[in-house]
Design goal:
Layout lengths: L4 E6 L14 H18 L3 E4 L11 H11 L4 E8 L5 H15 L3 E6 L9 H4 L10 H16 L5 E2 L9 E2 L12 E4 L3 H10 L2 E4 L2 E2 L7 H19 L7 E9 L3 H7 L2 H4 L4 E5 L2 E5 L2 E4 L1 H8 L3 H5 L2 E5 L6 H15 L7
Parallel strand pairs: 1-2, 1-14, 2-3, 3-4, 4-7, 7-8, 8-10, 10-13, 10-14
Antiparallel strand pairs: 5-6, 9-12, 11-12
């Protein structure tokens, strides 16, 4: 078992409906900060947010990450993931470096091509359109390349001699170490290999946009193995990191059983279906008593290979509810896995 860190991943949903503790965008933002604080207090290692545009979810991560950083001291802070189709890579580099400096080097930024979304050609509305002969995925990778060069200190603009600037200029500020803390969200084995070749860490979610007929955890473990092999072949000087996401819902009291008890049976197997023009495999959820979840996670092939597990949280149930779930995971499930 390689897992060393447990983090939470929040999509930051908000909706003014009965039962929701997150009615407004302000609720979603403030509660994300409060959950990061609570998670750090119970021993969680990471606080991650998902980024979606044109939806009632978290969309602009850097002000939120900076606010989280100002309220916490040790917990890693990250994204899973930022859709690079939408990003101005140089402005993003400035924001990322500033947030990383505020956090004292705790940022872990997951980036990717993004996922299906409510908007048609949403990135075009932001002013970003692939050039002729290229795809959205090509554009996302190009934006990522420029972003990574910028945070590594490459000259990305020419100096103006009239202003006393000579030669090439890098974006400011710079934050040492940030280039090694960039992750790519890979939905296939081939993309995981490309990620390793680029020298980025691997972030793999609860779905893969391919299916070979084997259980999700085995397919994801194969993805991780291919990533690690490609990393070794590339000869990078540092060790990579690998995260996987999981839906983990311990039933610890009447309230958790009320919300999730009936789902334990239905959500205990993988699901296969179309997404974004391909057949995808969605991983199962882990719902039940903590000792049962621990035994099942111990058999999860991908969890065994990853160093970080991100637990997706039902954020609309509020900070206190999710803090209790996370505390149970840290105190009841993690020790049973032999991780402490």
């Amino acid at each position: 078992m390689n897992v060393k860190r447990i983090g939470f991943l929040s999509f930051g949903h908000w909706q003014d409906v009965p039962g929701s503790q997150v009615r407004t965008a302000r609720d979603a933002l403030v509660q994300s900060i409060e959950l990061a604080v609570a998670a750090e207090e119970v021993g969680v290692s990471g606080a991650y947010v998902r980024v979606h545009h044109f939806a009632r979810q978290l969309a602009s991560p850097f002000p939120l990450l900076a606010a989280m950083a100002a309220r916490t001291r040790t917990i890693e802070l990250g994204t899973a993931v930022i859709d690079m189709r939408y990003e101005n890579p140089l402005y993003m580099a400035e924001e990322a470096a500033a947030a990383d400096l505020i956090s004292d080097g705790r940022l872990q930024l997951g980036i990717s091509r993004g996922s299906p979304e409510p908007a048609l050609d949403g990135a075009a509305s932001f002013g970003y359109v692939p050039v002729e002969g290229e795809t959205d995925a090509d554009m996302a990778r190009q934006h990522a390349e420029v972003f990574r060069l910028a945070i590594a200190g490459a000259a990305v603009a020419r100096g103006n001699p009239q202003m006393g600037a000579v030669g090439g200029l890098a974006i400011q500020p710079q934050s040492s170490g940030l280039p090694d803390r960039i992750w790519w969200g890979a939905g296939t084995r081939a993309t995981a290999v490309w990620t390793a070749e680029q020298g980025m860490n691997l972030m793999s979610s609860t779905l893969l946009t391919e299916d070979t007929g084997v259980p999700f955890d085995e397919l994801q473990a194969e993805q991780i193995t291919m990533f690690l092999d490609a990393w070794k072949t590339a000869g990078h000087s540092r060790d990579p990191r690998v995260s996987v996401s999981r839906s983990i819902l311990p039933l610890i009291d009447d309230e958790t059983r009320h919300y999730f008890g009936l789902r334990a049976q239905a959500d205990s197997t993988d699901q296969v279906g179309p997404i974004d023009g391909a057949i995808a495999r969605f991983g199962r959820s882990y719902i039940g008593e903590p000792d049962k979840i621990a035994a099942e996670l111990a058999q999860d092939a991908a969890v065994r290979e990853a160093d970080t597990v991100l637990v997706t949280v039902p954020n609309q149930l509020g900070v206190d509810f999710n803090a209790r779930l996370l505390e149970s995971i840290v105190k009841d499930i993690v020790p049973a896995l032999g991780l402490v």
